[in-house]
């Protein structure tokens, strides 16, 4: 089975990608510094611990495994943290990606699938975004991902590094078999925080802002099931393997849900009360981020069939009750 280097394979999305790659006949080789990931989450292939900024370590891993492609998930990804500590994001995400791309090119590995984000679009009220929408990030996380997209263009022009860029909307849910799932410490994402509030692991869910210009005053996001999301990456890998040109794809569903709507769905799916407190806006948050996914559907043949809010919350709830990683 051909090897694929998966940076961030010990994290939430990367670990699900490793499972999907295994199912599709590849061997995922996880490369992760465990700064936010979990060794326990590496269940589907070899694990090489290392930092993206460590060129010598990367060179050794490329030489040992001769991967046919890189799936690059490894990154810091918290919008709020990126506003407080932008340097961390430029260093980990941008410098780390630069060193990774240089190592890949030096090793002759010229197929690269990159996790980007809808945060590169910034705040564009009441627009359904597509891949040609202007990019104007309003936080350092989005800016760091935007910069990496630019680097990829330069590396393709100069060194032939063909790539697929996926701009994610809000990823939620978990492996339906609960072998892997979402587990961040500290947790900042809406769905797991709601589930924590439901089962008493936290006192209440704080809604960050109720005065946005939306029907119920809370922010609107486009939620996509993590299993659908990683399936797109396997399709992206096959796209590159078939010799096609570099391409950017949004991964969302085109449907937006407000924070209050997500809470209501969670209440209904779990049949439990969600303690809620109304709080201030969180710096860096956009009012509404919703994607068109027509390009991924028509060109990649992607079909986000599990991305209903009910299924995402049901799978997240199953994982929440049965799965966890040790520190
Ligand atoms: N929210 C709350 N309370 C919380 C946590 C979140 O009200 O305790 C709200 C946020 O304000 C936001 C929504 O729930 O309106 C979703 O927040 P998340 O933190 O779950 O997700 P974000 O939209 O902030 O971030 C996600 C990804 C990022 C990506 C970003 C693009 O985690 O990687 O989408 O905006 F960049």
UniProtKB/TrEMBL annotation:
GO terms for molecular function: UDP-glucose 4-epimerase activity. This is UDP-glucose 4-epimerase. It comes from the Bacteria. Belongs to the NAD(P)-dependent epimerase/dehydratase family. Residues 4-252 form the NAD-dependent epimerase/dehydratase domain. Its EC number is 5.1.3.2. It catalyses: UDP-alpha-D-glucose = UDP-alpha-D-galactose. It comes from Roseovarius atlanticus. Keywords: Carbohydrate metabolism, Isomerase, NAD. The keyword Ribosomal protein does not apply. SUPFAM superfamilies: NAD(P)-binding Rossmann-fold domains. PANTHER family: UDP-ARABINOSE 4-EPIMERASE 1, UDP-GLUCOSE 4-EPIMERASE. One of its GO terms (biological process) is galactose catabolic process via UDP-galactose, Leloir pathway. Its cofactor is NAD(+). Pathway: Carbohydrate metabolism; galactose metabolism. Homodimer. Gene3D superfamilies: NAD(P)-binding Rossmann-like Domain, UDP-galactose 4-epimerase, domain 1.
